[in-house]
Amino acid sequence: MGTYEVDDELAFRVDRLARRMKPFEALSFQEGLKRVLDQFAPQTGLADVPEIAQRVAIQNAVEVARAAMKKAPSPSPIQYASMVPELKKRPNLTTWKSITDFLSIETAGDSARRKLAGWVKMNRPDWPPVPVID
């Protein structure tokens, strides 16, 4: 039989579910998983295994897709502020929002970095351009 990697969160959830019946007993992960499966799917026969495996595969694919769709990290506002003489003197400018607030730029719920980029193009063309997300 193959070896499967299990993250800490899943192991904790299995352990918590398995200990509902006998809270303080010592269980291995395998024993806990058997108990959880017996408790929540006692009627599942071998005929249902492919359907369950398919559901698990779909759920895993969805989680992988969600992780891939996460936003790219924003460029560093501290690094940008350090390149602009008018901003580098202010140590509290650590976020894009704090920079736009300092410059009195209204973001109206939009990205502060994008609003700042437009403002710099129009009002301070001699400043370095605001970095973009790759």
Give a written overview of the molecule.
This protein has seven helices and no strands. 55% of the residues lie in helices and 0% in strands. The protein is an all-alpha fold and 134 residues long. It has helices at 8-18, 29-40, 49-69, 77-83, 85-88, 96-102, 112-123. Among the domains are: 1-42, no CATH class; 77-123, no CATH class.
State the main characteristics.
134 residues, mainly alpha, 7 helices, 55% helix, 0% strand
**Biggest sheet record:** none
Outline: elongated
Radius of gyration: 26 Å
The total count of helices amounts to 7
Would you count the extended β strands for me?
0
> Which percent range describes the beta-strand content?
under 5%
Low-confidence stretches: none
In N-to-C order, the SSE pattern is HHHHHHH
Helical percent range? 55-70%
| Category from helices, strands and their pairing | mainly alpha
Distance between the termini: 43 Å
How would you state the average pLDDT, rounded? 80
Précis, in short:
This protein has helices at residues 8-18, 29-40, 49-69, 77-83, 85-88, 96-102, 112-123.
How are the elements arranged and paired?
Blueprint: H1 8-18, H2 29-40, H3 49-69, H4 77-83, H5 85-88, H6 96-102, H7 112-123
